[in-house]
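The records we work with from here on pair a chain with its fold. These numbers are not coordinates but entries in a learned vocabulary of local backbone shapes. To see the layout at work, look at the sequence and tokens printed below.
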Amino acid sequence: MISIQNRITAFAKLGAFLSQFSVDNIKKKDNIEYNEIFYDGFLHQIKLAQENNSWFTKDNILFSLNDWSKSLKKSTLIKFSSSKDLIDSSPKKVAVIMAGNIPLVGFHDFLSVLISGHSILVKQSSNDKHILPFLAKYLEYVEEGFKGKITFTEEKLSDFDAVIATGSDNTARYFEYYFKDKPNIIRKSRNSVAVLTGNETDEDFINLSDDVFQYFGLGCRSVSKLYVPKNYNFDNFFKGMYAKKEIINNAKYANNYDYNKAVYLMSEFDLLENGFLMIKEDESYSSPIATVFYEYYDNEIDLKIKLHQDKEKIQCIVAKDFIENEVAFGQTQHPQLTDYADGVNTLEFLSNI
């Protein structure tokens, strides 16, 4: 079994490798282990990922890689892994069924299983199948003990001790039935919301545009719903969103914008729009691409009660001095390692199987 120190060191080396790839700059660095084997090949995998899924633009892939490179620092990994006793864990094989909505969306589960000392059996989404296997191969080079502990499959899952599965509400029902006899974490669809009070600054709204538009709004941490006071004026909101006006130049996004706008107009829904984003009054949490829903609230206490009642549907609440565990404007797509999906502590689960 690989020691916890060696597991941490291996992932820290992976973080150093990923630090060469960011939105601002792709630059080969000196002193990165096995760079001569992996650097050019990884550039090719990024290209393949773009070609396989047109939502995975180069900027979105690099954004994800850069964020993970910052999380995979040795000090951060030590703090993360020390939250649970991972030294004497009895190794198990954990199956992980990954979503494919944003690049490397399943990497936190991948990290958690391996840092816990277990083996992993990965079933990827066809939408996100290029990058992770390549990074797994890099891990096996920097730490030979990982060889034989990482398996990717496209077949029906078999021979595993526990499972972590992420999918839609419909697939979650299937997962809950199929994996009922195994220790499991089953994740359903969630969305993120922002609470506006009227006291936000121009900078807050510009930051909020990151929460709305990063990954085209496809992530569970993407803001898809606003709560606003009665008679709220959306002018400042739209001014902040204007920072992302270039998004309409993406053909797939533009097609979705045009289609959803046509549907709304034919249905005679009231909506406000600015040429690349529509907002529509709606009680739902999950909005279509290029759309953000909004709902009015009468008082803050009732809204807090509602958000608590609907906590199983909400991933993040973006706000400023409004509610416990809120996320600051512009920070939803920069989660810490301890910001567990659905609020379920993955390391705790893995330490008890």
Summary: The domain at 4-189 is CATH 3.40.605.10 (Aldehyde Dehydrogenase; Chain A, domain 1). The radius of gyration is 21 Å. The chain has twelve helices and eleven strands.
